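Hi everyone,

Forwarding the result from last night's run.
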Amino acid sequence: MNYSVDKDGFYGDFGGAFIPEMLYLNVKKLKDCYLDIIESKEFKDEYKSLLKDYVGRPTPLYYAKRLSEKYNSNIYLKREDLNHTGAHKVNNTVGQILLAKKMGKTRIIAETGAGQHGVATATVCALMDMPCIVYMGEIDIKRQAPNVARMKMLGAEVRAAKSGSKTLKDATNEAIRDWIANPKDTYYLIGSVVGPHPYPDMVARFQSIISEEMQFQLKEKTGRNYPDKVIACVGGGSNAAGAFYHFLDNEKVELIAVEADGLGVLTGETAATTQIGTEGIIHGSKTLLMQNSEGQITEPYSISAGLDYPGVGPLHAHLFKSGRGTFLGATDKEALEAAFELTKLEGIIPALESSHALAVLNKLDLKPNENVVINLSGRGDKDMETYMKIMDNE
């Protein structure tokens, strides 16, 4: 595949493993064993069994009739919101918890922004009876209170990151510090296609179940096993990586990634990494990130906690730079309008993250005979407080 990672963990110019010396052995051990383990028949059988009977896969590929009529095209929604825990994140946590057990690890740490990855991690830790510590920005803890409660109910310890912007970036920093302090027994369960190699490749492989299912579902519904367009929101980019994975080398498929423009790309209150970011290193990999002229991270902003990250995974940086992917943006306002539109037209309340993907439908030159798949990465239960504030102000 032209867009696969190479032996050193690079996608074109991006990727690699830029890590402190104290993490070197942990990362090397993971890199040396992950493919042998996850490609084994024993692992695949256990992983696929849990996805089917515990997560609830395959998720439906739903033809959104009224949305299609409005935008004069054939629009399908890949219903990752119907997964156990309410988002695509669990595809990855099921895979990594099995990997951690086979590596002999006994303690799990994770970071989370919107809380979806934290809930998915706490869930599989409960399932496997393993202790779980989730780092979360202090601001995100306040705006995603329902998910914090779910994590605690599942037995996880939620630790607040109180430095910097007190969001996902800072939670990730705290998780890395924990891993450095506890290298022997601890497995760092990263939730997106970010971090040092092999995490971006490994997470993309676990999330590729999304596009794998799309292939046979599209064949059944349209007679062809690929769409004309796939649309997904991008913060770090795990749901987009999974939705794009099996179409990366099919140039007939347009891959559309949607970033959070926040209050507007030029306002300074944005998370639109590819639009204002430059090449640099963040959380162990070379990629595109928001930084000032001295290389200091620029604080991101988005109404959506899951997209509030100052970088993008190296796979997506490569898709952007090579031109293989089309990168668009949606503001907070546009995402909110799209969320209420989907709710009204289809009776589905989407997560704020997914609403960004929906928000670009009116920016595309859609055609009546085209098949468009939007990856509905999560459900909107966790965002009800934000949605209720909007309704109260109307």
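The radius of gyration is 19 Å.

Cheers,
N.
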